[in-house]
Amino acid sequence: MKTARSMKDNGLSLLTIGKSFILLSGCFLYFWLWVNPTLIFQTQEPVFFSSNRFLLEHLTWPGGVVEYLSALLGQFYYYPAAGALVLTMICWKASIAMGWLYSFFKPVKANYIFLVIPSILLLGLSSLYTYNLSFSIGLLITLFMFNLLLKGAAGIPAIRPLLFWILAIVNYYLAGGFVILFILLYIIYLLFHYKKLFDILAVLLVIPAPWITAQYLAYISLHDACFTHLPVKGFTVISVLAWSLWIYILAIMFIGWLMQRRSAAAAGKEPARYLLALKNKTLAGIVQISILLLLIAGVILSTGDSLVKSLLTTDYLARHHQWQQLLDYQTGKSKSSLYEVFETNRALYHSGKLLDEMFAFPQNWGTNSLFLTTQFSELSLLHNSDLDYDLGYYNGSLHWVYEAVSMRGETGFNLQRLALLHLLKGEKNSARRYLSSLHNTIPFKKWAMHYLAIMNNDSLLQIDPELQDKFTRSISQDFMNYQSNPEANLINILQADPGNKMAFEYYMAACLLNRQWGTIVKNIPVFRQMGYTNLPFHIQEALLIYMAQNRINTLDVSDYSMNIKIKTQFSAFQQLMSRFRNKTEAQTSMYESFRHTYWYYALYPPVQPNSAAGTR
Amino acid sequence: MIRTKKYILLIALIVLTVVCGCLLRSGEPEIENVADVDRLPVLEPDITDIVIPPNIAPLNFKIMDKAGQYYVKLHAEDGAPITWHSRNNKVIFPIQKWAELLTENRGREITIDVYCKDENDLWSRYKPVTLQVAQENIDDYLVYRIIHPAYRVWSNIGIYQRNLGTFEEKVILHNKTLDNACLNCHSFHQNNPQEMMLHLRGGPGTALLLAQNGVLKNINTRTTFNASPAAYRDWHPNGKIIAFSVNKVAQFFHTVGETRDVYDTASDIVLYQIESNTITSAPQVSLPNQMETYPAWSPDGRYLYFCRAPQPVVPEGQNFPYNSVFYELMRISYNADTNEWGEPEMLLPHAVTGGSITHPKISPDGRYVLYCLCRYGNFSIYRPESDLYLLDLESGENRRLSVNSERTESYHSWSGNGRWIVFSSKRQDGIMARPFFSYFDSDGEAHKPFMLPQEDPGFYDTFLKTYNLPEFVAGPITATPQQLTRLAFAVDKVKNAALDPRLSQHIDTPDASSPWQSAPRAK
Description:
heterodimer; A: mainly alpha; Serine Threonine Protein Phosphatase 5, Tetratricopeptide repeat; 34 helices; 0% strand; B: mainly beta; Immunoglobulin-like; Neuraminidase; 5 helices; 39 strands; globular
């Protein structure tokens, strides 16, 4: 009874709880099933170690605590349901915190909708794969601290300036730049409440805190000392939503206290007032729900990015070696981003279909999407390492993953790769170091324990599913690596390890993409040496082009027989082509009939984009 | 009321638990019927049979022999013994008691007795580990750079000073406040913390930051003579000149063994004269057909030691013959008062060493040259076979030191009294360099080295960065990171070094391109 009354006092009711439950359930399902926190993990790879050193490091600068907490909670993104729960709880806590603040407007009461708007904005922010949790946690801490201040100020008004000063400093230490919000909230509070010189002094004494910190207390730039955890760089969806959230909170506090003052002035004449009151309850309910739904829809629509999600899903499937799912996911697309095509080609190789089906998928990036080495961005580094790892070129893979560590930090995926590479190179002390670090993480602990347990037992390592076929692939012959010429590296790898099927297939794929049919013809005997029972489809298609171009009727194909169906199709291709004056006129018809053949690619090679536009 | 009682009871229980825990922990275990084990305990880091400075921080360690309980006693002829026991294998000595024990036993041995209790509650005692405490102190501070193993891009680079008597580590400068610039080649005039220089690349700009007796300067050492900025360096003993090499560096990658490799396609030696802000050189140390690098002054300032290799002529379209470039040890006389050079003398030719010499460092008494020898080239930190060698300038004896391991030993520095050397070694895993210290006795023998001690003996197990360029300094560096950051950003106050007018002839101009880059979007 007492609880119910206190709930009612706080503006809560069973209806409110019911609405909250429905909203939170919807929020959880949205995060879990639509946003998929695993993809956020895939993008951000939050680094967290459960070690004292990691904790202590984060205690040395303002905002470090929030960074630590967001890194910790970010680990749960690895598990979709747990990640969704974390994000939902944050949205829920935001509405709770707003409830606390609204309770200070008494007798003015706030409509439920005002309570949940911050949560909706946070929902939108959290849907963005690059959004960092530290903003949400900083906001919650600040709202909590401000609530403490108001409670303290209400209890013993005399200590208010001192309490403000202490809490502001604590807030700054915990949440960095969020102290600005804390100060602004306090200034609004002072506008409507009795203030003394000490209140103003207390504010003035907090303002130089970032400068003092940067100069004397912590080794941090002045910019970071002022704006840690605030989205101050650039005009993005994240910054718009984040600053909207700040403005909303500040505005609602201003309006709340303004109405409270007016209510006090009219004391005894009017009943308790609502922010944006509507006398008709049914109408009010309809308006509330409509506004809520509109807001939610608006936020979700403004934050959804199907291109990014497609890229991240592909990336996720590749990272977890779900090759068939990846191919299914990419099937039917006419164009894909560079990274998606890169991963599709890897999936095709691992499914044994690269030279048979690669042109059934978009190849709109030419050889750039086979190697990515022309890209030197934060995003391409681990992908480059993946490819070299698959190729058995472990030094190359090591090179790229160390670059990835330099640019993205000691992330779980980077450390996993380093541990495996050093195991493959027989450098067990190095491997142990990375495994020991991974042992201090949450998502990779079990994985690390497995390898720590077997790393000294070579026979167990040799039969480990991840490593078993990798030990046989190491390159024993040294050569200078050419980053600018990956095809030359493939030739070198093949010279050092002639049985390297992946290197050969990628070399042939590069020849197909570069339309080097003569080189393909020269390498036909290698297919025989590699044990291919039939020539892959796209190779046969290329041979037919070569023969047509050079007006050759027969070709030595090392006792392979050409597929009759392909020959027939090529005749149809040539006949269709002959119906048009030029290839431009023929393109639409060709696309309809032959877009999944190599002939179409060879006839209409993609115009190479100037940059990685359209990539992540 | 009931609630208050509950709280009191709860608090009493917590206090009781803490007190009991403390009492149990502080009590000495009863060690009876001890069985002797006829071997040394396995300790990590290995501190058996080493000579240690009397002013070094506690050499905490892990006991790698599996046991249910451990007991360790550290004792010596004088001073109160230190005991420690736990179920945890990490032995952490109290810093104050450790320091007292070492101070009281300077020049004598201290002994570590290790006892282990097995699952049958039986204690065993290993052969005692002895540490010889040297008479001579080690320098109070060590300065080093910490960085992830770098390939093409860098991020997160910091130069730190570590108090060797404690575990206190402070940042001198970190690139997080420098727009992700690269910091390197910190150097001190005769181990004096008040006279420091370091290089800055990228970020606010390429510059040499010089802090000398409270005066901070930001200098651009590029001139028309040297398009590349100053690189490897050494201070003249008079503190008025710094010798530099200017190098054109290329990096490439191997497919087998150590991935990274670096070679110079050109290099010269120049002198930076601090007072006149002038770059000068001489034909003898900047020959167009030779690559001169790694300058090092003799303690009397009369000789400049350096490494030199013939500059290969590479026909177009061919690879640089990186593995047939061998640097030899040279020296040249120099008069700092008149800026006059003598003629280069060959000290150690390739025919004698069979390899390539890098990083010559002259001992403070001027008698020894400590250097690295690797199979080829001049980037020893990437050469697994790189070892430390010692040339006795008095006797001419040249030998490999016993401190080497099967993996890279590279950059090294002498303590101010010449009794300690510190060097980078990748002996742990071949990837991460760690600073190792060795006592260098009056007979020229370097004793078994030990690793830079850490409070947590498991620190290195999960530390994923590498230590570069360990340099001794006699005390703390007083220039603050904030001061140095402001200096770095004071681009308008950068002083361009003037070129010595006598150097009218442009001898060799390596360009300024660098194979290393700042990480564009580092976290």
